[in-house]
Amino acid sequence: MVIIMNRNSPFDEIEQFLGRAPFGGDRTWGRDLRATDIDVAEYDDEFVVMADLPGYDREDIDVRATEGRLTITAEHDAASEDADRRYLRRERRHESVTRSVDLPGPVVDEDASATYRHGVLTITLPKAADETDDGHRIDVA
């Protein structure tokens, strides 16, 4: 008979609830209502950042790349859409989301592009040319 014991203590869930992520991370418990989840991918000639922003319109989203840092801001005001209605129950509210991430390397800000489809924002940032020229290596025979 093999007994498999769970290595997590009951206090792990409490620490996550209090905002302490396992493995020494600084992520808060659950999903922060003012932040968005992102993925950053690196390819040969570009970085691609994908952010989950469901429920926003393109006009609600602002993306800026400055000095090696990418900042995504989205703001949605449900109240302004339905100002003339009398609600019996109201749960939708003004929401603002901001997320900044340091880019893993230098990029060409002017050539960056972004698309927004099905609640996912995809930002493509071309890498800047490597300015360190080590010259041409000559093999010794």
UniProtKB/TrEMBL annotation:
Region named Disordered: 79-106
Domain named SHSP: residues: 29-141
InterPro entries linked: A-crystallin/Hsp20_dom (IPR002068), HSP20-like_chaperone (IPR008978), Small_HSP (IPR031107)
Any Pfam family matching the protein: HSP20
Superkingdom of the source species: Archaea
Alphabetized UniProt keyword annotations: Stress response
Similarity-based family: Belongs to the small heat shock protein (HSP20) family.
Protein name, entry field: Heat shock protein Hsp20
